[in-house]
User: Which sequence fits this backbone?
């Protein structure tokens, strides 16, 4: 009865979903394509019976990158495997395209109404469904069990916050989790939380993301950029989320103002001047927004998209007037004049850098000496710190790391990561670490060792899935 009411609500919400997708498409064109797939309407020919599709669902970018490791391992164990790859976000789908081979299929995840899920399963008839990390939907789980499609949860994680949300909807969530054919958890804590939702955890195998190796060419290119720069170290705000860039800019702005107001020649060098600052937003649709924020706070701006051969080759930044600002006879807008009361125009080597590109995090980590962990200074749960560790880049993280709680704790215990209770304290810690060569080298070695010590989850998961497939009728 509860699931029927849930299904009815989602059926009613379909026009709202279409409106939401249209709105998001104004910022990300990927949301505009193949919208009918989300409602179980497919233009391609029906998949022949017995095709044996292995269905992997990776909702967004992070899950898709983890899925890439598993898909590669499964192809080795299952020669001739045909992949059905589904996503919920445009960034996930874009990344997923790189994983497709001849005969593979990529579509949007089905909206969780009874009709949509029924059409999805009838059309593709997957042999198994592999959900990455967290995506368990009530109607999808019920329909897979009824159709005899084993549905499993790989690289499974569940934060305390997500557990509490699921328990509030336990009449929906518990049957869904209980119907899973297998669950491979990242950590013991994840396993304990998952079992509270009624599922049986098959094994705790670790996090697949530890098995990802950074793009060597990009990482070495980033290191070459850093070597070519010389002088000041680089601090990176990595995969930043809304609110974090502005908070950082305000901190840097305040520190610059303090230094300029201090007339003493013995005043300590500003944290703005001790290091070079690089910001890489998590979502590409925010690149221009963050560029505007940097300019509004009075800093020079140098964008990755303008670097022919790295930051050393960037053109000199130009300060532009804010939209709608009036211009006086001296040629400066009123906005620029008010900024100039506190800030002098930034020199090219003291401008802030904006990483406005996709697929280059290994390059940015190679360039950086220390990274501030995006998503951890606002209540977003933190981004993945494993890639930074694999690139030997130590991390300073804020108070919000529930998405990767155990990885964060292990990294901190290993000396690969450091915890700060606020962004202001994190900035000071990161700058001090970046400017202390001995401590920095120790932290780099700890980061590399931490990443290497936790590998192996991909092979364990692929082996277990292959065994399950052989056992399934």
Assistant:
């Amino acid at each position: 009865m509860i699931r029927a009411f849930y299904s009815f609500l989602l059926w009613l919400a379909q026009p709202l979903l279409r409106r939401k997708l249209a709105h998001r498409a104004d910022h990300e064109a990927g949301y505009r394509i193949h919208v009918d797939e989300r409602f179980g309407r497919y233009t391609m020919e029906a998949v022949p019976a017995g095709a044996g599709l292995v269905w992997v669902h990776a909702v967004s970018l992070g899950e898709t990158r983890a899925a890439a490791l598993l898909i590669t391992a499964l192809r080795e164990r299952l020669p001739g495997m045909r992949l059905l790859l589904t996503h919920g976000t445009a960034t996930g789908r874009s990344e997923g395209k790189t994983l497709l081979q001849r005969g593979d299929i990529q579509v949007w995840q089905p909206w969780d109404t009874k009709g949509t899920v029924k059409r999805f399963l009838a059309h593709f008839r997957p042999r198994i469904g592999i959900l990455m990390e967290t995506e368990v939907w009530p109607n999808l789980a019920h329909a897979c069990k009824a159709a005899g499609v084993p549905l499993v949860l790989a690289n499974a994680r569940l934060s305390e916050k997500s557990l509490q949300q699921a328990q509030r909807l336990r009449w929906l969530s518990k049957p869904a989790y209980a119907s899973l054919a297998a669950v491979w958890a990242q950590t013991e804590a994840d396993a304990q939380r998952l079992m509270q939702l009624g599922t049986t955890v098959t094994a705790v195998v670790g996090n697949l993301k530890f098995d990802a190796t950074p793009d060597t060419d990009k990482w070495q290119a980033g290191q070459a950029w850093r070597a070519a720069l010389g002088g000041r170290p680089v601090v990176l705000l990595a995969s930043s989320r809304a609110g974090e860039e502005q908070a950082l800019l305000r901190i840097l702005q305040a520190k610059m103002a303090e230094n300029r107001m201090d007339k003493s020649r013995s005043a300590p060098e500003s944290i703005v001047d001790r290091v070079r600052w690089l910001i890489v937003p998590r979502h590409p649709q925010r690149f221009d927004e963050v560029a505007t924020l940097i300019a509004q706070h009075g800093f020079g701006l140098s964008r990755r998209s303008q670097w022919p051969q790295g930051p050393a080759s960037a053109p000199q930044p130009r300060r532009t007037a804010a939209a709608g600002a009036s211009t006086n006879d001296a040629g400066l807008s009123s906005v620029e004049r008010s900024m100039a009361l506190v800030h002098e125009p930034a020199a090219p080597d003291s401008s802030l850098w904006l990483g406005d590109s996709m697929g280059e995090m290994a390059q940015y980590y190679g360039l950086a000496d220390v990274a501030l962990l995006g998503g951890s200074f606002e209540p977003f749960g933190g981004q993945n710190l494993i890639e930074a560790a694999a690139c030997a880049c130590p991390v300073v993280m804020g108070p919000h790391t529930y998405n990767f709680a155990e990885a964060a704790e292990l990294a901190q215990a290993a000396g690969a990561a450091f915890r700060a209770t606020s962004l202001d304290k994190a900035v000071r810690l990161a700058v001090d670490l970046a400017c202390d060569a001995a401590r920095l080298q120790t932290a780099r070695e700890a980061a590399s060792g931490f990443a290497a010590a936790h590998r192996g989850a991909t092979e364990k998961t692929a082996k277990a899935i292959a065994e399950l497939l052989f056992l399934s009728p």
About this structure: Confidence is low (pLDDT under 50) at residues 317-349. DSSP finds 20 helices and 14 strands in the chain. The longest strand covers residues 234-240. Residues 176 and 216 are 41 Å apart (CA to CA).
